[in-house]
TrEMBL record:
Sequence ranges assigned to domain CUE in this UniProt record: 140-183
UniProt biased composition (Basic and acidic residues): 82-99
Cross-referenced Pfam families: DUF1771, UBA_10
Domain of life where this protein originates: Eukaryota
Sequence ranges of Polar residues compositional bias: 65-74
GO cellular component terms attached to this protein's record: nucleus
The organism of origin for this protein: Aspergillus violaceofuscus (strain CBS 115571)
Signal peptide: none
Protein name: Smr domain protein
Region feature (Disordered): 60-102
InterPro entries recorded: CUE, DUF1771, Endo/PolyKinase_Domain-Protein, Smr_dom, Smr_dom_sf, UBA-like_sf, UBA_10
């Protein structure tokens, strides 16, 4: 019992209740870790501000009209509408008390210009219902519409009248519905006059990119603005603002199609671009590459025959070395051989894929588990090491870093949302969303990290020598298994000649694992792991100083 009385929550209740309500204090405290002194101090700062506000409100009299105790008959307002406090205001406050069945408000906030305004406000008053809520009494429909019009100045009169009729003349219900209507219909204008819609639903969790709508006077878009929409560095923690709001996938898809069409309208119809976009998983870079391949010329000789096209292709390949001649020619053809437009498409095509959302094709996946194979039926699938030289080491390392960072941030947000879910059940959906985003980023990061390891090994290896310096143990085991199998398959019929002496004269396949001098305890990690894997897979291995040599097989593979 003594422990419970001395708990941090009990101490806070003794300090802040009253004036704060214990239920309110408990709800706020659930968002903080009371075992962490830093978070307790932060909680106390929040409660101090609430306690100060509560003390200020305790000294104010109850006034259902919201006019701060001033009525139109108490000379509190002059003819110009300026508020003037009477010196005897505090002395006359007790005389304002009435019983709970009729609280006359005098509703002076209408400010109607017609002559009937004076007649209306004399008979409009508040009454207290059986459930304790206030209701306008003696007000006509016009009075209620005027009252709501003063409160919602941005809403047209027809909407207010229709909402009041749907609510059966109940001002409180109509007010609740109008509040929701104003919030969801509100749009934020930026400096250029472009309106930005407030995100709704699940899309509101993902603050990635701005949703821009055409203004009535803006009939065209600048190409620079369209191109900037595809630099998709996502930051889920950004607040909603005029320069950074979230959009749904359908609006993004339409903008992607419009971007391609603005540069290729002379050659490609919009419907064809839209079909190609959805066929390529709603990915803008993939769609551009697919359209370029379709319209690319038959071969290199065809490009060389057209001197102008050949010169333009050479210019693009010099600026973008990773783009092939075929793709460069296709980009020029779909843009009607306009180099500037082709370069814009090439720049977007080489953009790192967005990390904020998954493609539409990945939203629904059907996976199945393969049946287990017997040990004697297992055959290592050969892979061509030459294909891996196409990897750009810096690009994949950068992509892996981006996905790891985004995944860590998403998991952090999921943890925060989960803690807040104890007091707000809606935060459970946010926690699930951010957790899913984090898992997607982690999977993509692992793929890019594996591709980076492949690219690094490709740079420092040859056809019969594999250098594993700089890669992890897991990647080293995977790469060794693939490369040894590929080397063995490349021998062809020569491996059937047999004889260990013949195999040794060929030199075998050398795997450099290092001596482990850079590890924390000076022992090798790669050598034992790779050696055990090769022996377990049935290879004949010779162990050297910091290296392994595969000279054949111990059994029929």
């Amino acid at each position: 019992m003594a422990d419970q009385s001395n708990s941090p929550l009990q101490e806070l209740e003794k300090t802040y209740c009253p004036p704060l309500d214990p239920a309110l204090l408990t709800a706020i405290a659930l968002d903080f870790d009371l075992t962490d002194q830093a978070q307790v101090e932060q909680l106390r700062g929040t409660l101090d501000a609430l306690r100060l506000s509560a003390w200020e409100q305790e000294d104010l009299p109850f006034d259902p009209s919201g006019t701060s105790g001033l009525s139109p008959d108490s000379n509190g307002f002059d003819m110009d509408g300026a508020c003037e406090r009477s010196p005897s205001h505090t002395d006359t406050m007790p005389s304002r008390e009435t019983d709970l069945t009729s609280l006359t408000s005098g509703v002076s906030g209408f400010n109607l210009d017609d002559a009937s305004a004076t007649g209306r406000k004399n008979h409009v008053s508040y009454i207290v219902r059986s459930d304790g809520t206030l209701s306008l009494h003696g007000a006509t429909d016009e009075d209620k519409i005027a009252y709501l019009s003063e409160m919602f100045r941005s809403t047209d009169r027809f909407t207010i009248k229709h909402t009041l009729q749907k609510a059966g003349g109940d001002v409180d219900r109509a007010m609740d519905e109008l509040l929701n209507y104003v919030f969801f219909d509100e749009q934020i204008p930026d400096e250029d006059g472009i309106t930005i819609a407030v995100p709704k639903g699940v899309d509101g969790f993902q603050g990635a990119e701005a949703v821009r709508k055409k203004g009535r006077r803006r009939k065209t878009k600048g190409k620079a603005l369209a191109r900037d929409q595809y630099a998709r560095a996502s930051n889920c923690g950004e607040p909603l603002s005029a320069s950074s709001t979230s959009s749904n996938i359908w609006a993004t898809a339409e903008k992607d199609v419009d971007f391609i069409y603005s540069l290729t309208s002379a050659v490609l119809p919009k419907e064809r671009i839209r079909s190609a976009y959805h066929a390529n998983g709603a990915s803008l870079p993939t769609t551009i590459q697919a359209l370029a391949k379709i319209h690319a010329p038959g071969g290199k000789n065809t490009v060389e025959k057209d001197e102008l096209l050949a010169a333009q292709v050479s210019e693009i390949t010099q600026q973008f070395p990773t783009i092939t001649t075929e793709i460069s020619a296709g980009l020029l053809i779909i843009t009607r051989q306009i180099p500037s437009a082709a370069k814009e498409l090439a720049e977007v095509m080489l953009t790192v894929p967005e990390t904020s959302r998954a493609p539409l094709s990945e939203l629904i996946k059907i996976t199945s588990t393969l049946p287990p194979l017997d040990d004697e039926d297992e055959v290592a699938e050969p892979r061509n090491p030459g294909l891996r030289f196409a990897h750009n080491l810096e690009n994949v390392k950068s992509a892996a870093h981006v996905h790891f960072s985004a995944g860590a941030e998403a998991f952090s947000k999921a943890s925060t949302a989960y803690r807040r879910g104890k007091s707000d059940r809606l935060m459970g959906g946010a926690a699930a969303y951010y957790s899913s985003v984090g898992r997607d980023h982690l999977e993509l990061a692992k793929r890019n990290a594996a591709a980076a390891a492949d690219a690094l090994v490709d740079q420092q290896s040859t056809s019969n020598r594999l250098d594993l310096h700089g890669v992890s143990v897991q990647d080293a085991v995977r790469i060794s298994r693939e490369r040894v199998s590929a080397w063995w398959e490349s021998l062809g019929d020569t491996r059937l000649m047999g004889g260990s002496s013949y195999e040794r004269t060929q030199g075998g396949f050398n795997i450099v694992t290092g001596k482990g001098r850079h590890s924390h305890d000076g022992t090798s990690r790669l050598g034992p792991a790779v050696g055990k894997m090769l022996v377990r897979d049935g290879w004949r291995v010779e162990v050297g100083e910091g290296s392994l040599t595969v000279v054949g097989v111990m059994r029929q593979r």
